[in-house]
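Reviewer comment 2.1 asked that we show a complete input and output for one of the modelled complexes. We chose the 2-oxoglutaric acid case, as it is the one discussed in the main text.
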Amino acid sequence: MASSIASPHTAFKRLPLVDIARLFSDAPEQRLSAAEKLGKATREAGFLYITGHGIDPALIERLRQRTAEYFAQPLQTKMRDYIGQSSNHSGYVPEGEEEFASATVDHKEAYDLGFDLQDPALQRPMLGANQWPDLPGFKEDIKAYYEAVLGLSRTLFQGFALALGLPEDSFLRHVNQPPSQLRLIHYPYNPDAPVDRPGIGAHTDYECFTILLPTAPGLEVLNGAGEWIDAPVMEGAFVINIGDMMEVLSNGSFVATSHRVRKVAEERYSFPLFCACDYDTLIAPAPALLREGETSRYEPLICGEHLFAQTAQTFGYLKRRLESGELKLPENAKGLSSFGYKAKYDEVQP
Ligand SMILES: O=C(O)CCC(=O)C(=O)O
Ligand SMILES: [Fe+2]
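Response of the prediction step:
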């Protein structure tokens, strides 16, 4: 069913693919040329594959192995690192811990990791030292992947700035110790499950953009015509998608794209790294992106607070801390599903 809701995205039938190798070039004109291609795909779809990213396949292989080993353990063992013990949102997320606006529960479990900031004086609700499970090699291999992909995110932050016609370091100077989370997600497969539940319901990501590595089919992306488009696994490529905060930073030139994971037909893992700015960064459109006399279409956000507010409205352990008064939502916290076009589409095309 077509929808009458306006979307800036095209009616793409497959995700665009951009080779970003030239973003790493020493020659500014080469970087600009790659950034223009990145910008076109981002404006049109907000969701794309990238190649030429320079991430060593051996890092990916070790990430996959460690994750499979971790989730194969008994629930009791995994619960030793339950995220509800953490004061900076790191650890094991059992199935059912996250509950979304529609009161749906995804069919998945996860392990959440962040920037691994060791100084307790700098700790924030979404930033601090990680919980690491007692599993040989896990910390080393997962950390190595995190650091490499966080490095890639820095290059992409530069690329997005150039694509918007801004100075190259406009975003990057706010990316020093970001509360950027890596999730190791496991979607178990149970052919006999009595309830037909999706892997993950329709949503936009909260941060600036996400560098996603899926390992099996199931990801679907909402196009500008309100249709769910299949995003198959492309070997050697990452999937990049725009999140809420880049929508604000770009004054709506780049729009957070809704996506979901349909009910899995085989066991599935996926690895999103959600790329944020530093905790206290004011997320507002750069003045250069406003036409004369135009005011921002978006209320400014504080990066870490938006992240925390959204997370606290979905995770059971945080909801309990809010109810008990131990934690408070930041002032002007946005409700869930405040960005992109998904909620409206869901009504017409479930
Ligand atoms: O599993 C996937 O492919 C996507 C996961 C996702 O969208 C998320 O965790 O925000
Ligand atoms: Fe997502």
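The longest strand covers residues 268-275. We note this here for comparison with the apo prediction described in Section 3.2.
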